[in-house]
Structure prediction request, 57 residues.
Amino acid sequence: MICGFCGHEFDESEGRRGCGGCPGGCHSIHCPKCNYKNPLEPKYISKLKNILKRKGD
Ligand SMILES: [Zn+2]
Ligand SMILES: [Zn+2]
Prediction:
């Protein structure tokens, strides 16, 4: 995924999950570079995006 703040590309498993610092529990992936809280993207959404991308070609 790509960090929405600094644009750093990283793997979901690379990002920090469950940081313990977010109120109400962490449900996001923190960028390993800038610690920006990226909203968790369900897998079906990225699949959907791929389909849309293909259609656009
Ligand atoms: Zn970042
Ligand atoms: Zn967090």
